[in-house]
Amino acid sequence: MVQTHIHPTAIIEPGAEFGHGVKVGPFCTVGRSVVLGDGVELVSHVAIEGRTQLGAEAKIFPFCTIGLAPQDLKYKGEDTETVIGPRTQIREHASIHRGTVTGTGITRIGADCLIMATVHVAHDCILGDGVIISNNVALGGHVELGNGAIIGGNAALLQFVRVGAGAMVSGLTGVTRDVIPYARVLGIRAELLGLNLIGLKRRGVEKPQLHAINNAYKFLFSGPGNFAERVATLSADADDPYIKDILDFIAAPSRHGILTNVSGEEE
Hints:
The protein has 267 residues and is an alpha/beta fold. It has helices at residues 197-202, 207-222, 227-237, 241-251; strands at 5-6, 11-12, 17-18, 23-24, 29-30, 34-36, 41-42, 47-48, 51-54, 59-60, 65-68, 81-84, 89-90, 95-97, 106-109, 114-115, 120-121, 126-127, 132-133, 138-139, 144-145, 150-151, 156-157, 162-163, 168-169, 174-175, 183-186, 191-195. Helix 2 runs antiparallel to helix 3. It has four helices and 28 strands. It has two domains: 5-142, UDP N-Acetylglucosamine Acyltransferase, domain 1, CATH 2.160.10.10; 200-251, no CATH class. A hairpin with a 4-residue loop joins strand 27 and strand 28 (191-195).
């Protein structure tokens, strides 16, 4: 069994809980309510505070801060939470803040995610499994990212925005409305660029099904009638699981509404 190793310069508060084989590198600080699962590695200069859990084999790179108080003037020190899933990697200088009592009370990142350098994940964000966020992305509070979503470098997502499973947000994009699952968006103010067809192929979707999903997408965003009418028409006979994912996402509560602007560059 691999032994836990704590560098002599690390500061561990009494009460912190470690699984088997944890590695805590130089100059890390770990608060009293932190739980590190089996095989977690803090490379160096990592600060973890609050009621924070890191899943097995998560790896945190230098100068990350996790579970610190949110940047919310309404926060008064309440006992809220941060949860990081197993095998997730968080790269240099990323910051992940704990939840608030005015939100869900928890900031959650799923399993097998990659959070690249200098990303900010604000309070009460919920990220699914397999999410990839490139360098310098800013997620406002309460943002939700579905499983397998990909966010390009320097993108910024407004508070309460939702991005569906398998969607791809291009670099430098500002997202102020909800992005449906499996879509691609681009632009200083995000516009729909089409479906993430490569992502769907990687999920094992074959050509006939791809065509059906693409036709449904085109009908939703450029068919006759208004958007609500097209959603109702498509919902009446949709049996493809991916199309149902899109329709369920549209039907769910939304603070900002669904992004429906289509780029002139759409493929």
